[in-house]
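Sorry to interrupt, but I need a hand with the structure work. I would like you to pick a protein and set down its sequence and fold. Please put the record directly below this note.
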Amino acid sequence: MTAVVRAEGLSKYYGRRRGLEDLTLDIQPGEVFGYLGPNGAGKTTTIRLLMDLIRPTGGRVRVLGAPPGEAAIRARIGYLPGDLVLEGRERARDYLAFLGRMRGGVPPGRVAELAERLDADLSVPMRKLSKGNRQKIGLIQAFMHEPEFLILDEPTSGLDPLVQQEFLAMVREVRASGRTVLMSSHVLAEVEHVSDRVGIVRSGRLVAVENVAALREKAVRRVELHFDGPVPREAFEGLPGVRDLRVEGAGVRCTIDGRPDALIKAAARFTVVHLVSAEPDLEEIFLTYYSEEGAHHDHQVPA
């Protein structure tokens, strides 16, 4: 199957400042790809290159098998920019109706259905929309024509938690229908429950691409074990992946990187009466990539 996105050595510099450097990435049909990184890392630059809003300094990119500037390709994409601007005196309902006509028609009731799901008020003039309602209108226009490929830049910005959950349900429905989503965010928890893979970008460089299951396997777990009597510290020292070990009488506390197999086998030599394991902290593995990968890179064009 043809990749929905295929970038090869894609780079963009703004003068001497690096926006994106040497991005090589494939996004496959039917997957939700989470694109993670702090503000200024290169996520929006990548998306603008995919939308042909800016031109690359180097490399090449294909979207839905063609150069991204082709009009026929743009019609197959739903796009929510991170800096959405909605102005004018017309009501949100009229604006969405206009966009629907421009896109060749939207099924009757589709806009109303999405507005109800997102609790969006379509009667408000565009210039009077709150940040949250503006974001809802942006999501409606991205989803309403059921595009093949959704590109969403910080899509939950300004949304309350209940609406965020409804949005994530909409993303799952897109994936279930075989369509594709690229979703950028600086919040890992926002994408971990819907993404098949995540790419982590730092200072304009892609430092990792992982599937979510692999990230969970690498993630940090905090474990607390209680036994029916005191246990020797040496029974738990030096175990693979075990660090921050504390042994106090009948209690053992530690942090595990990756699989807990070695700790479980060591604990099985004694009688365990209680076990607490915190949910894997994906945020910590995410931050580990930032501290260990590319920390020496600067933002300048190489000499």
The first helix runs from residue 43 to 50. The chain has a mean pLDDT of 88.
